[in-house]
Amino acid sequence: MASVFDDKQSRRIEAVYLTPDIVRQRAQLLEALALQPGECVVDLGCGPGLLALEMAHQVEPEGAVQCIDSSDSMLALAKRRCDGLPQVHVRGGDVAALPYSDRSFDVAVCTQVYEYVPEVDRALAELHRVLKPGARAAVMDTDWESCVWNSSDALRMRRVIEAWDSHCPHPQLPRTLAARLRSVGFVRVRVEAIPLINDTYHPETFSAGVIPALAGYAAKHGLVPRAEVDAWVADLQALGERGEYFFSLNRYLFCAQKPER
């Protein structure tokens, strides 16, 4: 999988991941993982290393966290964040061709990655391959059609969201992810929605943080005229000033297990 993030984009994503919204999401993910000291974990698409850092403290002193990402800029952030933690190992890699031996890990986690992978079924098969019998996996992805975003122009809002759908190969992956996990051999697959809700416009929220990404993508690729994109952004800010801002988006967390035998 080719890298999709340059240094500026990686920094912007890191800032979004540091918002209280995503801090709470990470806490929910960690609760679902129920990591134990001594476990060996693989973080597929580790991004800036925020989750890896927290997992490392939960599996110490004898456990380990292996991290891969396809983006050099993300890897640099993760290495810097986890510097000094000998139980964390960060390297470049492709989630569709994992550089690990069969049956290597007790736990695997992959958040907001598989929707970007063209060969997603191959990647899920690789996930299954590197897990030990009985090991567990947690996968999180987003379906932007679950988005509820107040706007003074609903049709313009829809055009921006539809433009964003084209930024990855599988924009509605959660709809088929449970079946895909079962098809490569996972059992006990369960799913829960993790909503992100902002009822105010504030720079330290998830929605405010992703507005530049949606606006920039739509305008850069000519999917929505720049003037229309600028009007969309201005409208959201105006709604915030009037106390009429509202945003909700579902992320979907899939937990699964590799069979004991």
Overview of this protein structure:
α1 packs antiparallel against α8 (206-220). With 261 residues, this protein is α/β, with parallel strands linked by helices. The chain has a single domain, classed as 3-Layer(aba) Sandwich (Rossmann fold). The chain has helices spanning 7-17, 20-33, 50-59, 72-81, 120-130, 154-165, 174-183, 206-220, 226-241, and strands spanning 40-44, 64-69, 88-92, 105-111, 131-142, 148-149, 187-198, 247-257. The chain has nine helices and eight strands.
What keyword list fits this structure?
alpha/beta, eight-stranded mixed sheet, Rossmann fold, single chain, globular
Summarize the structure.
By secondary structure, the protein is of the alpha/beta class. Helices cover 42% and strands 23% of the residues.
Outline, from the CA principal axes?
Answer: globular
Number of helices: 9
Mean pLDDT: 95
Identify the CATH class.
Answer: Alpha Beta
The CATH architecture comes to 3-Layer(aba) Sandwich
What value does the Rg take, in angstroms? Answer: 19 Å
Give the SSE string.
Answer: HHEHEHEEHEEHHEHHE
CATH topology: Rossmann fold
The poorly predicted ranges are none
Secondary structural class: alpha/beta
| Main β sheet profile | 8 strands, mixed
Number of spatially distinct domains: 1
Terminal CA distance: 30 Å
Strand content: 15-25%
